[in-house]
Write a sequence for this structure.
DNA sequence: AATTGTTTATGACGCTCGTTATAGCCTACG
DNA sequence: CGTAGGCTATAACGAGCGTCATAAACAATT
C-alpha cells in the first residue's frame, strides 16, 4: 500500500470547491468537477465512492477549514482582527473571480439534497457555519463579552457576511460587503468594551 | 384575442418560485417546474418563450414583489415594524417547509448562469435586493437617520436575513434567524433615535 | 355555425446526467 | 525482477435534460 498522501484526491477536492462556489452543487456535474482538476472521471469514484454528495461534503469541509485556519490565526490578535481577515478573505474571492464566485458552504446550504441520497453535504455546511461561529464567539468571550451576546453576535457576523457575498455577486458590486464591514466592526467594538 | 389574465401563467410562476427556493435553479428541471403547478410542459414554453432563465427571472420577481408589498405596508408603522414583518415572513417560510425552503432570490444569486444564455434571473435577483434595501433605507431616513447610515443599515438587514435563512436550513434550527432579529432591531432603534 | 387565435397535448431531437464495470497501467515493496 | 494493489483510462448503462415542432382541443367573437 502507498504511504504518501495521494495528491490527486486533494486536487479534486480543491477543484470541486472552486466549481461549487461558482455554479452551485446541482449546477456542477461530476464530469466537470473531475475535469476542473485535470483528474479522470474514474478517479472521482475511486476516491469518493459515495459519489457526488461525498465529494461535495469534502469540498465544503475543505473550504470551511481554510477559512477556519485564517480565522484561528488572526483571532489571536482579537475579534476585530479576526473579523477583518474573514471579510478580506471573501472580498478577495469575490473580486478575484470578477463576481462569479461566492461561498461554497452557502451554495450547498441553499439546495435541497435529492430524496434518495443521504445529505452529507448540507450537514457539512451546518458544521462549518457552527465552527466559524464558535471561534468568533469564543474570541468575544475572551475579551469580556457576555456568553449569550457573544454567540448571537457571532451568528450575525457569519449571516451578514454570507448574505452580503451573495448580494455582491448578484449586483456585481463589492459595496454590500464593504457596507457591512464597518457596521460589524463597530458592533464588535461595543461588545468587547462592555 | 383573450382579454382575461391567463391563470395558468401565474400558477406556473408561483410553483416555480416554490421549487426554486427549495432546490435552487439548476436543481429544478423545466419539467418539474411545469408539473409542480399542474401545467403541461408545452405551456411553459408557450408563456416563457425564452425558456428556463425567463421563467426563473419572473419567479424571482414574483417572490420579490410579494415581500416588497409586505414591507411597504408594514413600514408605514415605522422601520422596526417593517423589520419584524420581514423577519416573520422568512421565519414562516422556513418553519412551514420544515427547513427545506429558503429564499428563491438568494438561491438564484449564488448560481452562475450558463455561458450561452443571458442571465435574466440573476439580474432580477439584484433588482429585488435593491428594492428591499431601498424601502428600508427610505423608512430609516424618514425617521431621522442619516442617508449614508440608512443605506448601510438596510444592506446589513437584508444580508443578515438572507444569510441567516440559509444557516437555519443547514442547521435545521430557527435560532440563527431569531438571534439576528433582536440585534437588528436594536440597531434600527439606535439609528432612528440619533 | 363558422372562424380565429390561445392553450394544451404529445412526441421527439441531440445531448448530458450520475453511476458502474472492466481492462490496463504504474509504482512500491518483496 | 516479479508481482500485488492502488490508480487511470475508456466505454457503457438507463434515465433525464432543455428545447422545439406540430396537431388537437378549446374559447370567444362574428
Amino acid at each position: 500500500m502507498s504511504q504518501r498522501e495521494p495528491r490527486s484526491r486533494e486536487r479534486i477536492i480543491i477543484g470541486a470547491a472552486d466549481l461549487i462556489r461558482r455554479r452551485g452543487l446541482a449546477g456542477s456535474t461530476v464530469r466537470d468537477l473531475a475535469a476542473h482538476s485535470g483528474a479522470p472521471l474514474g478517479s472521482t469514484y475511486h476516491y469518493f465512492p459515495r459519489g457526488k454528495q461525498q465529494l461535495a461534503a469534502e469540498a465544503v469541509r475543505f473550504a470551511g477549514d481554510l477559512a477556519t485556519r485564517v480565522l484561528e490565526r488572526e483571532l489571536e490578535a482579537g475579534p476585530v482582527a479576526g473579523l477583518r481577515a474573514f471579510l478580506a478573505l471573501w472580498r478577495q474571492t469575490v473580486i478575484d473571480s470578477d463576481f462569479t464566485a461566492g461561498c461554497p458552504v452557502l451554495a450547498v446550504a441553499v439546495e435541497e439534497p435529492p430524496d434518495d441520497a443521504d445529505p452529507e453535504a448540507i450537514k457539512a455546511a451546518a458544521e462549518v457555519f457552527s465552527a466559524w461561529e464558535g471561534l468568533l464567539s469564543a474570541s468575544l468571550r475572551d475579551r469580556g463579552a457576555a456568553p449569550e451576546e457573544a454567540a448571537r453576535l457571532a451568528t450575525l457576523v457569519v449571516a451578514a457576511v454570507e448574505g452580503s457575498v451573495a448580494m455582491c455577486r448578484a449586483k456585481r458590486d463589492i459595496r454590500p460587503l464593504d457596507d457591512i464591514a464597518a457596521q460589524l466592526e463597530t458592533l464588535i467594538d461595543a461588545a468587547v468594551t462592555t
